[in-house]
Amino acid sequence: MPAATTQSERPAAAPVRRGWRERWLAFRNGTVASPAFQRWAAGFPLTRGIARRNTRALFDLCAGFVYAQVLFACVRLDLFRLLQPGPLAPEVIARRLDLPPERALTLLKAAASLDLLTRLPDGRFGLADLGAAMIGNPSIAAMVEHHSMLYADLADPVALLRDKPDRTRLSAYWPYAGGGAEVAADSVAAYSGLMAASQAMIAGDVLDALLLSDRACLMDIGGGEGVFLFEAARRHPHLTLKLLDLPPVAERARARFESAGFGSRVTCHGGSFREGILPNGADAISLVRVVHDHDDSVVEPLLRAVHAALPPGGLVAIAEPMAGTSGAEPIGDAYFGFYLMAMGSGRPRTAAELSAMLLEAGFTDIRERPTRRPLLAKLITAKRT
Ligand SMILES: CC(C)=CCC/C(C)=C/CC/C(C)=C/C=C/C(C)=C/C=C/C=C(C)/C=C/C=C(C)/C=C/C=C(C)/C=C/CC(C)(C)O
Ligand SMILES: C[S@@+](CC[C@H](N)C(=O)[O-])C[C@H]1O[C@@H](n2cnc3c(N)ncnc32)[C@H](O)[C@@H]1O
Q1: Residues 123 and 255 in one domain
Q2: Which residue lies with its CA nearest to atom 25 of ligand 1?
Q3: CA distance between the termini of the chain
Q4: Does a structural domain hold residue 7?
Q5: Any idea which residues are catalytic in this one (predicted)?
Q6: What distance in Å separates the CA atoms of residue 236 and residue 215, rounded to the nearest whole number?
């Protein structure tokens, strides 16, 4: 009897039947790739709009790093705060930023073209919607600043794709990404501060969508400095709170809660969820921006440990940016895909992948709960039956 052949062993000459979708794609790609077609489509009234949008989209991909560096310069120079009280003339801005006037004008015009600033008819520059949004969310500026490390790690993206480097800037910034049991107190301050600042953009959206009124005790795993729990406590005065994070981070959280006068309402546990046993006593457990940091080999036992730590009827909530989010596909797959690759741990997962992992860990009643800005965080809840 002939041995069964796998797909990759099939003789190269064997005819491959292509479905209509694949044949249509091949025809379409061949046509779009043709410079003559491109020229024609850019002039023909019914295709001109599509051709221009595609040209612009491809140009934006080529130029994205320049746009990001324009924003970086604005943040470094604190330009948005300078313009917060009102528009200023370019010469005044140049003086205040200590830049040569013609260079300052280059920056101002670039920022205006990117909708960060607006140029008034009298020539002064003021904040536009995106610049004003930066003022309201100072953690975005902190994110932009920390991107200098990601930028350096992505300088040779093919090398990053080929070999997992021992050390990248981001793996040093996120010391737990290496999986070691110990993280030094002085190595957590930077990332933990960034997370605490940016949690303000997320906690409200997640807690709007998360029903906790029937819960007695919420434990936030990888809870950082406690910002999510602060907001949960404010909204649900009946809740008692627990936080688990690595010892130096849990200590920072404990100090914050103590100075806010939380007393015995909150307990901060210093330890690693990789050890497989979690503190019990909570009837709700949240994992906010935690799961995507870790490979499946860490997440699977973590979800089983969450299941074991909950009583029957206990609730688990996973909140984080997820892959495949409609209208935000590049945020999951491109930004977080490459970010986590540079960091050396974890991957963005789709809601369906997370739901399957929850099911595998023994959870039921798995639901996606709509959040206000799903591109920043989606929410999935499930129950232990
Ligand atoms: C007033 C009148 C008359 C009309 C107004 C018209 C109108 C409605 C305008 C809308 C204006 C408005 C409300 C704008 C709001 C804009 C907002 C809120 C923008 C928010 C932007 C948020 C951004 C850019 C967030 C960026 C987040 C980043 C880059 C996050 C990175 C996260 C990282 C690196 C996390 C790391 C953690 C790890 C390691 C993966 O676990
Ligand atoms: C990306 S941060 C998110 C922090 C917080 N939940 C938030 O959204 O702002 C991930 C958190 O998980 C913590 N963490 C990472 N590995 C851990 C482990 N093995 N055990 C406990 N906490 C861990 C980190 O210290 C960090 O505070």
Answers
A1: no
A2: 140
A3: 50
A4: no
A5: 292
A6: 9
Q: Whose CA is nearest to atom 9 of ligand 1?
A: 129
Q: Which ligand is nearest to the CA of 331?
A: 1
Range(s) of the domain holding residue 58: 48-136
Question: Catalytic residue at 307?
Answer: no
The CB of 246 under 6 Å from ligand 2? The reply is yes
Return the CA Rg of the chain.
25
71 and 114: one domain?
yes
Ligand 1 mutation pick, 289, 322, 373, max ligand atoms within 8 A of CB: 289
Strand 217-221 vs strand 284-288: parallel, antiparallel, or unpaired?
parallel
Nearest CA to ligand 2 atom 27: 224
Question: Which residue's C-alpha comes closest to atom 7 of ligand 1?
Answer: 129
**Ligand 2 contact via 223 beta carbon (within 6 Å):** yes
Determine the Cα–Cα distance for residues 224 and 240; give it in Å rounded to an integer: 17
**Which residue is associated with the tokens 């052949």?**
5
Which pairing describes strands 266-270 and 240-245: parallel, antiparallel, or unpaired?
Answer: parallel
The number of the ligand nearest the C-alpha atom of 177 reads 2
Cβ 208 vs Cβ 373: under 8 Å: no
How remote is the CA of residue 238 from the centroid of ligand 2, in Å? 25
| 1 inside domain | no
pTM for this model (two decimals): 0.92
pLDDT digit of tens for each residue in the chain (385 aa)?
A: 334 444 444 455 566 778 999 999 999 999 999 999 989 999 999 999 999 999 999 999 999 999 999 999 999 999 999 999 999 999 999 999 999 999 999 999 999 999 999 999 999 999 999 999 999 899 999 999 999 999 999 999 999 999 988 899 999 999 999 887 789 999 999 999 999 999 988 999 999 999 999 999 999 999 999 999 999 999 999 999 999 999 999 999 999 999 999 989 999 999 999 998 999 999 999 999 999 999 999 999 999 999 999 999 999 999 999 999 999 999 999 999 999 999 999 999 999 999 999 999 999 999 999 999 999 999 999 999 9
Question: Angle at Cα 188 formed by Cα 158 and Cα 255, nearest 5°?
Answer: 155
Selected catalytic residue, list 146, 236, 269, 292 = 292
Which atom of ligand 1 lies at the shortest distance from residue 150's CA? 34
